[in-house]
Amino acid sequence: MLRNWSEVSYLPILSMKPAEMRALEELPGPTKDAMLPIIPLKSWVSARKLKSVTDRIEQSYGARPVAVSVGEREVGRDREVFQEIDRLRNPVQGFSNWVDFLRNHPNYIPVAQIGSDPLNELEQIRQLSQLGRGLVVPVERQAIPSLPVLAQGVARATDGGRGVCFLIDFGTASKDHLSIGLQVLGYFQTIIAAAPLSHVSISASSFPSNFSNIPRQREIYERLLFREVVRHVPEGRLIYSDRGSARAEPLSGGSGVIPARIDYPQFDNWWFFRDDDAGASAYGAQARALMANAVWNPDLRVWGTQMIERTARGDHSAIDNPTKATAARINLHLQLQTFYGEPGLANDTEEDWDG
Predict the structure, then answer these.
(1) Do 235 and 182 meet the contact criterion of CB atoms below 8 Å apart?
(2) Which of 24, 210, 273, 290 is the one with CA 20 to 30 A from 100?
(3) CA dist list (Å): 318 to 257, 285, 334
(4) What does the DSSP 8-state code read for residue 13?
(5) Concatenated DSSP letters for 181-235?
(6) 54: closest CA among 32, 29, 83, 21?
(7) What is the DSSP letter of 55?
(8) Which long-range contacts (CB under 8 A, 24 or more apart) does 176-180 make?
């Protein structure tokens, strides 16, 4: 195995969007070593070939072990990269195109394709397991009712779940998500009963879709749910996952001017500093408001911190649009969740910037 699941505490699902790739790229090396991102393959901006996508992952994360899946199909696109990714979805002979692609990328931990062709799924899982790198088996919300059958099949194909991490992905979560702790514990027990050597991860995102009635502070509901469940399971068998503070579903709608907003993560909360205006000066005002607030942690020295500090000083090359603000937030969130509950480790980045 490329990573021991018992030693992985954080499995963020990160997209190929520019903000998320930049946030990952700018993390300190020790943080990248500790975490293990899951990255669905999708087109990188204007990339014409799949190699540009894999090159961008390497630029952000180096040659470290990284879990890679096939992203959702993108319609209405005619670049070669979309055709290449489509070929990876072909279920023939146990998804042989997908298996061969992964075989040619020795630092990729495979994520199985589940739900598209049950007849070929278990053969795919058997072949991916034989790569000896570890295996992620995703279980989306709508597939949870079939979890017992899936877990039993995976167990048969992987010698009892050896090297396997089941990823229960709830997608978007709300405050009501906190009420399903007992259900999630039941899912964990179902998996372990069928595949006793496996691990389990639970994932969701509760980052707001709009901010019209959102208070300045909001709890990270997926982290609070994890805290509730993990108390009842053996140590090292349950792994935290989220979307790195990105939304599970992309926003849709108009393309009007987006008011300036600086988001500031903590271990269990997000803080939002909003302005009715847009542009660099509005971002600067909110960055200064954040740094004047008691929530600001000057000891957390990562790229996202530097971007906020530069913005507060009026540096218009720092945060002056939503993409840069998102990248800074995600960078800070990834740092904190990688070292959750351990401020000494989260702050110990050996980065030296002028504030």
Answers:
(1) no
(2) 24
(3) 19, 13, 19
(4) B
(5) HHHHHHHHHHHHHH-TT-EEEEEEE---S--TT--SEEE-HHHHHHHHHHTTS-T
(6) 21
(7) H
(8) 177/204, 177/206, 177/221, 177/222, 177/225, 178/221, 178/224, 178/225, 178/228, 180/225
- Token pair recorded at residue 35: 């975490």
Asked whether 10 and 36 are in contact (CB, 8 A), the reply is yes
Q: Residue 355 corresponds to which tokens in the numbers above? A: 């504030």
**3-state SS assignment for residue 32:** helix
> How many CB atoms neighbour CB 324 within 10 A?
18
Q: Where are the beta strands (DSSP E) in 54-205?
A: 66-70, 108-110, 135-140, 164-172, 199-205
Mean pLDDT of the chain: 93
Q: How many CB atoms lie within 10 A of CB 261?
A: 19
Global confidence as pTM: 0.95
Q: Which amino acid is at 143?
A: A
In this prediction, residue 101 has a pLDDT band, given cuts at 50, 70 and 90, of very high
Q: Which of 224, 136, 233, 242 is nearest to 188 (CA)?
A: 233
Model confidence over 275-333: pLDDT tens digits?
888 889 999 999 999 999 999 999 999 999 999 999 999 998 999 999 999 999 999 99
The predicted structure's pLDDT at residue 355: 45
Largest CA distance in the chain: 60
